[in-house]
Amino acid sequence: MKGATTILVTAVAGLLALGLVMLYSASMAQTGARYLTMQMAWGGIGLAACMGATVFDYRWLQRLALPITALTLLLLLLVLIPGIGVMKNGARRWFDLGPMHFQPSELAKIGIIIGLAAYGAHFRDKMHTLKYGLLIPGGIMALALGMIFSEPDFGTTLLIAAVGGMLLLVAGANWKFVIPPAIAGMGMFAVAVFHDPVRMKRITAFLHPEEHRGDTGYQAYQAMLALGNGGTTGLGLGNGRQKLGFVPEHHTDFIFSIIGEELGVVATLGVVAAFMVLVVCGLYIAWKCGNRFGQLLGVGITFLIGLQAFINIGVVTSALPNKGLPLPFISYGGSSLVFMLTAVGLLLSIANYATEPELATPTVDDVEEPEAGNPFIEAP
User: Fold this and answer.
1) Sequence-ordered list of residues with C-beta below 8 angstroms from that of 251, at least 6 positions apart, any chain
2) What percent of the chain has pLDDT over 70?
3) Of 193, 123, 122, 126, which Cα lies nearest the Cα of 157?
4) Quick check: is 265 in a domain?
5) H helix or E strand, kind and range, residue 226
6) Which of 52, 74, 139, 367 could serve as a FRET partner for 273 with CA atoms 20 to 30 Å apart?
7) Domain-located, residue 246
8) Burial of 71 (0-12, 13-18, 19+ CB in 10 A)
9) Domain count across the chain
């Protein structure tokens, strides 16, 4: 287990370091060190949260799952209210915290995983039934996803739905109950996209990139040019040209293309390898965990990080239509960085307490005075 955590920390540290270097390289011509300074500030908060989560006994989250889920739903609701949530680029997704903005959908990624993991552990013997395996957890997920979808944030909606569905299956839900609603949900999602002019233009640009390289598909086309310009070893750090106004989101969702242009395919393959290592280590930690909640929490966090990285890289390489998801640990974005580092801290906490049993839920009988020397009574 110690070897897995060491490799995990090394992979995350490498991604963080590369992210800071590439963020400065990508934005220095437009904003100087402003984005780097902000990212380092958020990174400091994230590392503090990561260390705190590492030493924290994650098993207590099972008892806190209900208030965490309730807080997540409340914040998702509040951000939709004009005057409370901040409107930017046609979406209301942020709270204004003065010098920084907070995005509650980033909290929702972890909050929903904690809620589903606690639910799956508590009802482990009933997860195969329709009521406990789908209707109850599915209703809570649908409520959260509906609010995120209304922001609108289609990419995060799709990501959380996919991770939540996989987590329910791992928790023991019958696939015959999960798959039909998932297909129906995808159909409804497709209908919503079809009636949304902005998203429909993105789909059209994805299907016919050459025809839309001057309008809707401009950013994706320029990202592909950046990757092509880099070749095997890249043009050199700081020598990229596509970041000079050709790729509008070069410091956020499309920073992977700048890595490819300046450091080449070798660096991009290194990034992919780092995420693959992270996924393998995360699943190994979850597999070795001694209780059900830890197993489900570890699997959910690992799915979240791995799938978000896969979607981002797929978008930048034009393998997927534009979803607007940041590349974990690398893209500029405070909320994403803090909660991704917190998620890594929870994985490390699971590793630290992997051999520990589940924390028992107190009952009336538990308050009776134990016999002296009773070996079954131990501190949490």
Assistant:
1) 23, 26, 27, 35, 331, 332
2) 93
3) 193
4) yes
5) helix 218-230
6) 52
7) yes
8) middle
9) 1
Q: Which of 192, 215, 191 is nearest to 202 (CA)?
A: 215
Sheet holding 101-102, edge to edge: 85-88, 91-96, 101-102
More confident residue, 206 or 147: 147
Residue 101: helix, strand or coil by DSSP? strand
Distance between CA 76 and CA 141 in Å, rounded?
12
Token pair 């979803």: residue: 323
**Residue 160 DSSP code:** H
For residue 131, give its domain range: 2-356
- φ, ψ for residue 238 (rounded to 5)? 90, -10
List pLDDT tens digits, range 333-376.
Answer: 888 999 999 999 999 999 998 776 666 544 334 434 444 444 33
For the residues 189-203, what does the mean pLDDT come to?
A: 78
End-to-end CA distance of the chain: 22
More confident residue, 184 or 374: 184
Give exposure, 292-317, as e/b (b: 16+ Cβ within 10 Å). Answer: bbbbbbbbbbbbbbbbbbbbbbebbb
Global pTM?
A: 0.89
Q: What's the pLDDT tens digit per position in 259-316?
A: 999 999 999 999 999 999 999 999 999 999 988 999 999 999 999 999 999 999 999 9
361 within domain boundaries: no
Q: What mean pLDDT, rounded, does the chain reach?
A: 87
Q: Residue 216 domain-assigned?
A: yes
